[in-house]
């Protein structure tokens, strides 16, 4: 596994659910091109991935670093 330097690290369970996706997308939008954010979650963030695919098409990369069963970690890169 390659070493990724993260500009932003987000632990999703610490964010109130009704604000969670908006906060994550806002943090992503502030990233400069070529930077990465780390997302940690207590479940597979597939719904967020689908939202990225719809609202940020061709603007991001998505790489699972840890795939459960108790923690998921995703590297989200800004193209």
Ends distance: 20 Å
Any low-confidence stretches, pLDDT <50, length ≥5? none
Content-based structural category: alpha+beta
Strand percent estimate = 25-35%
Q: If helices are DSSP runs of H or I spanning 4 or more residues, what is the number of helices?
A: 2
Word description of this protein:
With 79 residues, the chain is α+β, with helices and mostly antiparallel strands. It has two helices and four strands. It has helices at residues 17-30, 46-55; strands spanning 8-11, 36-41, 60-67, 72-78. A four-stranded mixed β-sheet has the order 1-2-4-3, with helices on one face. α1 links the parallel β1 (8-11) and β2 (36-41). The longest helix has 14 residues, at 17-30.
SSE layout and pairing:
Elements: E1 8-11, H1 17-30, E2 36-41, H2 46-55, E3 60-67, E4 72-78
Parallel strand pairs: 1-2
Antiparallel strand pairs: 2-4, 3-4
What descriptive keywords fit this protein?
single chain; 79 residues; alpha+beta; four-stranded mixed beta sheet; 4 strands
């Amino acid at each position: 596994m390659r070493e990724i330097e993260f500009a932003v690290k987000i632990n999703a369970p610490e964010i109130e659910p009704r604000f969670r996706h908006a906060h994550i997308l806002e943090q992503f939008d502030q990233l400069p091109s070529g930077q990465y954010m780390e997302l940690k979650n207590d479940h597979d963030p597939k719904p967020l991935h689908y939202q990225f695919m719809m609202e940020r098409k061709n603007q991001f990369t998505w790489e699972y670093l840890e795939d459960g069963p108790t923690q998921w970690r995703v590297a989200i890169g800004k193209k």
